[in-house]
Amino acid sequence: MSQELYFNIITFDLPEKPITFYLSKEKIGNAQKLYKTKFPTNIEDLFPGIKEENPDFIYTSFIYEKEGYLPLKLNLKEQPADLIKHYYNWRIKKFFKSIKKLVGQNFVNDNQIWIGNRSYQNKSFAKYYKFTVKVQFKEVSEYGELVISYDGMAKVFKKPISEIIKHTSTTNLNKVVYKMRLLKYHKEKEFIDDNTMAYAILNNDLRTAFNIQPEPKDDSNKYISYKHKIDKFIQHFILSEEFKKVIPVNNDDYLPVEINRIGEVADESNDLVFQNGVGRNPKIDFKNLKPLNPCQLDNVHFFFIYHTSYAKEVEALQKLLEDGTSWYKGLNIYAGVLAHFDNDVNIVFDDLENPLPQIAKGIKDFKSDPNINYVAIYLSPFNKHEPNLEKKLVYYKVKEQLLYKRIISQVIEFDRFRRNQQKFIYDLTNISLALLAKLDGTPWQLNVKPKNELVIGVGAFKNTEENIRYVASAFSFKNNGRFNEFHYFSKSDVKQLGGALSDAIYQYVPTNQIPEKIVIHFYKDMKDEEIQPVLEMMDKLQLPCPLFVLNINKTKSQDIIAFDQNWNGELIPMSGTYINIGPKGEYKYLLFNNLRYNNTVKYPSHSSYSFPIKLKISSPTPEALNDSKMIRKLIEQVYQFSRLYWKSLRQQNVPITIKYPEMVAEIAPRFESKEIPPFGQETLWFL
Q1: What is the predicted pLDDT for the residue at 458?
Q2: Residue ranges of the Piwi domain (predicted)?
Q3: Mean pLDDT of the chain
Q4: Most buried by CB count within 10 Å: which residue of 118, 414, 605, 620?
């Protein structure tokens, strides 16, 4: 069955006739500020010599006459895309404000429209659905394009902040709604004249302060619910006659994806090699086909860290790991981990509220045998949603202290195990997988011919509590995805990053032949100062191979996606489909990675409904991008590396070159020393 792909895009026409903008060199009253990249192409007609003066900004009232502002006729089709986008964003914002809708902006200044859910009945909150209307030009068509995306929902307190701060601190406030405006409380509170008219938007801090449970996780097909919401938004607003007077929409349906924009990875890119054959779905094949390489370490001893009242549960958990059940056969048979449980070295604590001192002492006093590889199973009394930060930090500090003792660890939430031991069997399948990988086993591998390539991945995690982005770089030296080592550093330190990337190349070359190519997977656009040390090292080592940089982004919301209208109503494009979403000369792609294959009749239940990821491919030597086969191979490699995630049997859509560093960067900043012990740089301890 062939695919019928459509973008979440509605197209519109630019005006044929010139329109008049009103401009001034100085700001007079309320006006829009235009940066110099947005100056009209014929700006010298109005302000002779302005290009030589080179001011950073001028000001405009756009199409409205205003005292002190001079008229200039513009053919929009000949103007900078940034200027046109600014103009239409301004018009869209004015339209939605005119019909009394909340309008905010996302981090790239696209309009985000908040639509109230009138059917939601709750005495404490009002619920809003958030939609982004992104303006772009001739990216995937010959027209102006409105990318309509759904960004999730928000809840707003019905009681004003004057009431809720009686029960919590203002430090917990972030965004508020005030007189039909979305404001950041701590940055814009000078605009709030009356706290009885300002309403807080629920965030994690307020959720914790008021003990509000998060919405239950929805495992249904997100493509269907997503499209249903944007369908309604488009029908009600974008296709209305009033909106068409503002933006001349020229088609009442989604934009079809041109066939010449669509590619597919090779079918064998889906293949994973297990001990007893080749499979595609780890959830099924790991159990049936067995791990490729069982645990490579001898004398593996497990022990427990637990509260005195957990003794019964520890006994039950040990029995499950040793003997399993009729379905899960235990660590050895299921995951190839032959382990001995040494209960003589268990660490037991009796303080539930503050367990760290006793656990830390137990780890410090732990007498390890150098001939034994130890694994600690810590039954944590605190779950991942623990509101108390000190209690939450226990998890990280226990992990750190065990690493200094060269001990691998696995944390299990006690309450999750206690509530339903039979259901916990499914958790144990993922835990067993992760333990095998931590113990130097290989659950599965890519079915590829070995090539002499160096692939370097750089990912990041933003700690919202500290508002710091931490960066870790992971290095994978083989094209089959085998992990080698990683370096970790914080605050996007350009110097350290450049050094780590250069070091990866330096360490690789002496023990290998000259690589066919060097590939960097980066979590954002790579800056010149970040890539320069790499080029210098390649020059120093006289490496003639090409360098490719792939910027890899998740597309959860606020962006372009595509639907397949020709597959059982489930809308999910086939796994391995990639779509060129850039104008000519740009190598930008959507890549779909899921469980729908050529012969899939219905999408597997309880599986991940992953949205696509976005790729942008560049190279310091642009001619290297002229090879279409090479571009496809680079996309296939991203696709394949996403299938090497060993923390869960669920299919992922982000490659481990990005995902593993992100996981490290989430944990390591919580360590007391802010460093990763040397032993931690040799193992996948973070799974």
Answers
A1: 85
A2: 373-673
A3: 89
A4: 414
